[in-house]
Specification:
With about 425 residues, the chain is an alpha/beta fold. It is built from 11 helices and 20 strands. Strand 16 and strand 17 (about 350-355) form a beta hairpin. Bound molecules: guanosine-5'-diphosphate, 6-O-phosphoryl inosine monophosphate and magnesium ion (MG).
């Protein structure tokens, strides 16, 4: 039987997962999202166009591949239908290549309101959530109150919706927040009606039947390891398992069915929202990375915080995900730098440590950097590994030696074609 390969982010999200899934899709028959929801924004660029996907897997532009929205994903019907309408303008047939798990949970309008109310109540301790209702929806899932896609095919759907809505309204009242508006509800119900006409499936059966037919499957992660609910910088994390284990629970595949694990990381580091970021640069270099890397959120437009590559954090992410090969993104953003910093250890409670400690807030952890020479060469037009400057191959070698895993690809621009296999 075939194995399922996984592609996931190793930092705080936005590593460039969408681009690489698109690049790799030619080698796969099925692309499956396994967690997260419209908090994700996966960007693909080809033939002069840019597309940002939130819930739909990044294999959707390839006519031979099927795309699965797995049970571990949370879906906002309004955002989902809008995304489909946009795609249909480009290629009407793309919806025929999309199936949705009946076990995926639904984001209600009140989940979004609760997300906003909870963030407001937290004040300066807010998570900096994308305000898409992710946290409250996963809370209802684990609290066993959630509504699932399969429920929209049942006769008692409206009753169950109203019951959950009423519970949310009481919670909103306790926050002193407004109730859900009639417009929000009617837009949501209209999208639910649209979803009833979509290809809803028992996705675990769908995936297993594909495996039995020797189809090649790639599981697409959202967010990144450092936003994982268990292993991320808690509580400044998202509410799902963003690591490889999430592909098992989010698709219904057993651990012994996992094949390759592609770990995506930027040649530097970014984070959007609140929470600790030991190697953050609050100076003009950080500003330069933001400008050169166009580091503004694909979902919210917020400026991303930027800093140097954090190698102990990368090694940690590789370990908990079982990464078998690395893909380094956005190397071109560092083109103009004389020297490039990499964090190789931290000072923690006055001692040098080379692992990611329990607390990484700046009053606990200070990064220790090594400065490596920059390549001072424009990478963007390069297509062959032989053309890469020596300082870049040395930079990659330094990373590989530190983490013990090979870098198999380097990305030198946002376009599909700007990808070099090593
Ligand atoms: P994802 O969430 O992991 O899919 O990543 P995002 O799409 O949120 O953010 C990555 C951003 O970097 C997008 O705007 C991409 O178009 C862009 N991008 C991806 N790879 C590269 C690269 O190698 N170089 C540059 N300059 N931009 C890239
Ligand atoms: P992709 O898949 C970057 C961050 C938010 C916030 C925290 C919790 O595009 O890499 P949530 O809305 O999930 O409750 O927010 O997680 N976050 C992301 N940051 N990329 C993402 O997705 C993210 N999804 C959530 O900014 O700090
Ligand atoms: Mg993104």
């Amino acid at each position: 039987m075939n194995h399922v390969d996984i592609l996931l982010g190793l930092q705080w999200g936005d590593e460039g997962k969408g681009k690489i899934v698109d690049v790799l899709t030619r080698q796969y028959d099925l692309i499956a999202r396994f967690q997260g929801g419209p908090n994700a924004g996966h960007t693909l660029e080809f033939e002069g166009h840019k597309h940002v996907l939130h819930t739909i897997p990044s294999g959707i532009f390839h006519s031979e591949a099927m795309n699965v929205v797995g049970n571990g994903v949370v879906i906002d019907p309004v955002i989902f239908c809008r995304e489909i309408e946009e795609l249909k303008k480009i290629e009407p047939a793309c919806v025929d290549r999309l199936v949705i798990s009946r076990k995926a949970h639904l984001i209600l309008p009140t989940h979004r309101l609760l997300d906003a109310a909870s963030e407001q109540a937290k004040g300066k301790y807010k998570i900096g959530s994308t305000l898409k209702g992710i946290g409250p929806t996963y809370m209802d899932k684990t609290g066993r109150n959630g509504l699932r896609v399969g429920d929209i095919e049942m006769d008692d759907f409206n009753d169950r919706y109203n019951q959950l809505k009423e519970k949310h309204q009481r919670m909103l009242a306790s926050f002193g927040a407004d109730e859900v508006s009639k417009e929000m509800e009617s837009g949501w119900m209209k999208a639910i009606e649209q979803m009833r006409g979509m290809h809803l499936v028992d996705s675990e059966e769908f995936v297993h039947s594909a495996l039995e037919k020797e189809k090649k499957i790639l599981a697409e992660g959202a967010q990144g390891a450092l936003l994982d609910i268990d292993f991320g910088t808690y509580p400044f994390v998202t509410s799902s398992t963003t690591t490889a284990a999430g592909a098992c629970t989010g698709l219904g595949i057993a651990p012994n069915r996992i094949g390759k694990v592609f770990g995506i990381f930027k040649a530097y580091c970014t984070r959007v929202g609140s929470g600790p970021f030991p190697s953050e640069l609050l100076d003009e270099t950080g500003e330069m990375l933001r400008e050169a890397g166009r580091e503004f959120g694909s979902t919210t437009g917020r400026p991303r915080r930027c800093g140097w590559l954090d190698l102990p954090a990368l090694r940690y992410a590789i370990k908990i995900n079982g990464v078998t090969e690395l893909i380094m993104m956005k190397a071109d953003v560092l083109d103009t730098l004389d020297q490039i910093g990499v964090c190789t250890a931290y000072t923690y409670k006055g001692k040098k440590v080379s692992h990611l400690p329990y607390r990484v807030e700046e009053d606990w952890v200070q990064p220790i950097y090594e400065m490596l020479p920059g390549w001072k060469t424009e990478l963007t037009g390069m297509t062959e590994k032989e053309a890469l400057p020596a300082a870049l191959t040395d930079y990659i070698k330094f990373i590989e030696e530190f983490v013990g895993i090979p870098v198999s690809m380097v990305s030198v621009g946002p376009d599909r074609t700007q990808t070099i296999r090593l």
